[in-house]
Amino acid sequence: MKSYEVNFDGLVGPTHNYGGLSYGNVASQSNSQQSSNPKEAALQGLAKMKALMEMGFQQGVLAPQERPDVAALRRLGFSGSDAQVIERAAKDAMPLLVASCSASSMWVANAATVSPSADTRDGRVHFTAANLNCKYHRSIEHPTTSRVLGAMFADQQHFAHHAALPAVAQFGDEGAANHTRFCRDYGQAGVEFFVFGRSAFDTRYPAPQKYPARQTLEASQAVARLHGLSDDGVVYAQQNPSVIDQGVFHNDVIAVGNGEVLFYHEDAFLETDKMLAELDAKLGKRGGNFQSICVPRSQVTVEDAVRSYLFNSQLLSRADGSMLLIVPEECRGNERVWQYLQGLTSSGGLIREVKVFDLKQSMQNGGGPACLRLRVALNQTELAAVNPGVIMTAPLYDTLTQWVDKHYRDRLSENDLADPQLLLECRTALDELTQILKLGAVYPFQIN
Q1: Per-residue model confidence (pLDDT) at position 253
Q2: Annotated catalytic residue: which of 179, 250, 265, 407?
Q3: Long-range contacts of 91-99 (CB under 8 A, 24+ apart)
Q4: Does a structural domain hold residue 365?
Q5: Other residues' Cβ atoms within 10 Å of the Cβ of residue 56
Q6: Which residue range(s) make up the domain with 388?
Q7: What is the pLDDT of residues 173-213, one digit of tens each?
Q8: Spatial contact of 434 and 443, defined as CB atoms under 8 Å apart
Q9: What is the rounded CA–CA span in Å between residue 428 and residue 368?
Q10: What is the pLDDT of residues 303-351, one digit of tens each?
Q11: What stretch of H or E contains 245?
């Protein structure tokens, strides 16, 4: 039976803004307080989805969240009508209002960790929504994320859903941004690769000194247990603390993997040789031929990687066995990175082609092509069981672009977040979107 890696891209929400909320994310902090363009952001993301669909890749879409999150503000003591809650938050605690308006759910690499049926004990595809408890503005996402994923992957015969891990520092979980799967074929048993920044309980593991390590070893181990993964199908590796302190807040900012290939920076991990040997041995036992491409620091520095988001790219397998790398425009704008990529593709190696996409609106807030997608490996039967409304087609693309043009603003500043009308605009748009994507009632305003 044929199997696929389906990329479900996050649809950028109507409140996309540059709040500078993510300490440790250089792009997010450096563009704080600038005006954003939600309409352009959503259309840029949709253009990437359409392009990959037209290249023959399976492509889906994941809906954004309701923002501002009035319920979250109520839990923090603001009361009155929805408009009054927003007005009082703007007056008394503007940073909380900004956080409640964040459109960060667009980066669905953080939405969940996904294990395909070929790897799990019960033969189902498993999803665990990420608690994202390192940042308040992201920690409020997982209840809606769980409902949306449940509406997309509803057939319990094929799909299993787990609640987010306990929302405490010891189990900080950032989802698939720190998770990669290696396999010979998407339908065959593979090796799931969990990257953590620190251990909550074992002091032998060093920690970064400047920026927080968001993913813990204990969270990764818990997800592996929940998904029913076997020990011989899992590898844990620690991210280099020094690169976290240089702005590498997730592993997908310094490494990307797919199929049998890991593309990574020389400084990405601790104990790299040991990690590579374990991946090679475990994938070999499952019929795979592990291969790695190391980008030397002498050619691309960590700073270059962070500024260009070279590794926050999509590594895609083509039918002929070659690989395609989807990178943001910022890679072409960095002379050293672009020179490296030109040499990489001309060498006749594993990665044969690079395609560049303009994702400036997302990039300025700290998310590139890899941040925007959640990968789900599905066989034909499982793919047929997915809610068809979320699978990208040419008619769906046209409908969604019209929907964005109808509902989204083309400029949004911090002051605009205090406009109660923005909440009404967002709810009207999302109510229509759930009908387009056939999701049913997944948002709090539809349920309460």
Answers
A1: 94
A2: 250
A3: 94/414, 94/418, 97/68, 97/73, 97/417, 97/418, 98/17, 98/19, 98/21, 98/137, 98/414, 98/417, 99/19, 99/21, 99/136, 99/137
A4: yes
A5: 10
A6: 3-67+102-447
A7: 999 999 999 999 999 999 999 999 999 999 999 999 999 99
A8: yes
A9: 28
A10: 999 999 999 999 999 988 889 999 999 999 999 999 999 999 988 889 9
A11: none
Report which residue type is found at 448.
N
Alpha carbon distance 108, 310 (integer Å):
18
Q: Residue 87 domain-assigned?
A: no
CB distance 201 to 168 below 8 Å: no
Whether the pLDDT of residue 242 is over 60: the answer is yes
Helices (H), 286-323: 302-308
**Ramachandran area for residue 175 (φ above 0: left; ψ -120 to 50: alpha; else beta):** left
In DSSP notation, 53-121 reads: HHTT--EEEE----SS-HHHHHHTT--SSHHHHHHHHHHH-HHHHHHHT--GGG-GGGTEEEE-TTTST
Helix-strand-coil split of the chain, %, nearest 5: 40, 20, 40
Q: Enter the tokens of residue 118.
A: 């070929």
Catalytically annotated residue among 40, 66, 174, 278? 174
Q: Against a cut of 0.90, is the pTM above it? A: yes
Q: How far apart are CA 106 and CA 244, in angstroms?
A: 22
Residue 203, CA distances (Å) to 169, 173, 242, 350 in order = 15, 19, 17, 39
Residues 120-178: pLDDT tens digits? Answer: 999 999 999 999 999 999 999 999 999 999 999 999 999 999 999 999 999 999 999 99
- Of the candidates 371, 382, 414, 426, the residue annotated as catalytic is 371
The crossing angle, in degrees rounded to 10, of helices 420-436 and 394-407 is: 160
Query: In terms of C-beta density within 10 A (0-12 exposed, 13-18 middle, 19 or more buried), how is residue 87 classed?
Result: middle
Q: Of 99, 82, 107, which Cα lies nearest the Cα of 12?
A: 107
For residue 249, what pLDDT band results from cuts at 50, 70 and 90? Answer: confident
Instruction: Say whether 174 is catalytic.
Output: yes
Residue 75 lies in a domain: no
Residue 24, domain CATH:
3.75.10.20
Residues in a beta bridge with 9: 61, 373
Number of domains the chain contains: 1
* 89 in any annotated domain: no
Half-sphere exposure of 377 (CA within 13 A, CB side): 31
Q: Which two tokens stand for residue 318?
A: 């083509």
How many angstroms separate the Cα of 257 from the Cα of each of 3, 227, 389, 403?
18, 20, 28, 34
What is the C-alpha to C-alpha distance for residues 352 and 349, in angstroms, rounded to an integer? 7
Give the amino acid at 173: D
Pick from 193, 372, 185, 432: which is nearest to 289 by CA? Answer: 185
